[in-house]
Write a structure and sequence with these properties.
- The strands form two sheets. A six-stranded parallel beta sheet has the order 5-4-3-6-7-8, sandwiched between helices. It has a two-stranded parallel sheet with strand order 1-2.
- It contains eight helices and eight strands.
- Helix 6 links the parallel strand 6 and strand 7.
- Helix 3 crosses helix 8.
- By secondary structure, the protein is α/β, with parallel strands linked by helices.
Length: about 230
């Protein structure tokens, strides 16, 4: 049995497969449809209904050793980037938010990202005392998952790393821009979405800080210092 999620509108790939195998071929969507009010995980699992499987688990979970990635001190993971600039909160806003975190809490910060972030992680880390910040760029995803698992929470954008943080069980806050959250949001009841509309640059720092501080009071003890 073969499940194919390739874009194959003329069924060329399907026909070629049929020439070399008698396996049953089930076609899935090459990309979830944003116009449907159905989460991507459910759309991608729909081909299983051909096998009378209607109750597949829709929440991705990655199980890790509980000791993996444990931090020496309570740490908040931040991913201030994504694969698309329109989905990013401005770097200056992140800089201000990080300043508030450093001043108002005792948390260490873990800045994570990859090639798409360019020099953003290093620039954001520069004003933070070296003893309170780490930068992880482009490490293998299993290693990143373990590092995230050791944190008290996560804040980021509409990105794959947000989904990874949700899958390892972290609570999180995602600053959401123009994409359809019904389809693309991390599938976890521990993740909250703060909508910024089509222009995340219009989202002020103060409401983000207030929401994050409120969440931190739930995720982490002791509670943040008063400002």
């Amino acid at each position: 049995m073969i499940f194919s999620y390739l874009f194959d509108p003329d069924e060329i790939f399907r026909d070629n497969l049929a020439r070399i195998t008698k396996a049953q071929i089930i076609q899935g969507p090459h990309r979830p449809l944003e116009g449907r009010a159905v989460h991507a995980t459910e759309q991608l699992l729909e081909p299983l209904q051909r096998l009378a499987i209607f109750d597949a688990e829709c929440e991705p979970r990655i199980n890790l050793n509980s000791a993996a990635g444990a931090q020496l001190r309570p740490t908040l993971a931040l991913h201030p980037g994504s694969g698309g600039e329109r989905k990013n909160w401005p770097e200056a806003a992140w800089q201000e938010l990080i300043g508030k975190l450093v001043e108002a809490t005792d948390l260490n910060l873990l800045l994570v990202g990859g090639e798409a972030e360019g020099g953003r992680l290093e620039r954001l880390a520069r004003p933070v005392p070296a003893s309170r910040v780490r930068v992880l760029r482009g490490i293998p995803l299993p290693a990143l998952a373990a590092e995230l698992r050791g944190c008290v929470g996560f804040a980021g954008h509409d990105s794959g790393i947000s989904h990874l943080a949700a899958a390892v069980g972290l609570p999180g806050l995602v600053l959401w821009g123009p994409t359809n959250a019904t389809v693309w949001r991390p599938r976890s009841d521990r993740f909250e979405i703060l909508h910024g509309g089509d222009d995340l640059g219009a989202l002020d720092v103060q409401p983000v800080w207030e929401e994050l501080r409120r969440r931190l009071a739930e995720w982490w003890q002791p509670q943040p210092k008063a400002t």
